[in-house]
Amino acid sequence: MNRVVRGVLGIWLVAVAISAFLDDKRVTAATAAIAGAGLLRNAQAQHCGGNVLLGIDTTTD
Predict the structure, then answer these.
(1) In terms of pLDDT, which residue wins out, 6 or 1?
(2) Lesser CB count within 10 Å: N end or C end of the chain?
(3) Cβ atoms of 13 and 36 closer than 8 Å
């Protein structure tokens, strides 16, 4: 479930980045693009740095 949420949020942030870029909001576009790419990478790699920092283990035995 965690992975799906990161993937959906990543796609949404990339869409926000494209929209912001088209509206000449470069800082917003860059920020959203970096965050979206990071979330998509986390979803693809099945590894979340935030969970590691917080000591959360969502893996199954």
Answers:
(1) 6
(2) C
(3) yes
Are 51 and 26 a contacting pair, CB within 8 Å?
Answer: no
Count CB neighbours of 3 within 10 A. 15
* pLDDT > 80? residue 50: no
Residues 6+ apart with CB under 8 A from 22: none
Tokens describing residue 59: 């893996």
Question: From residue 51, how far is each of 48, 54, 59 by CA, in Å?
Answer: 5, 5, 11
Inform me whether the pLDDT recorded for 60 exceeds 80: no
Q: Using CA atoms, how far apart are residues 3 and 6, in angstroms rounded to an integer? A: 5
φ and ψ at residue 46, rounded to 5 degrees: 60, 40
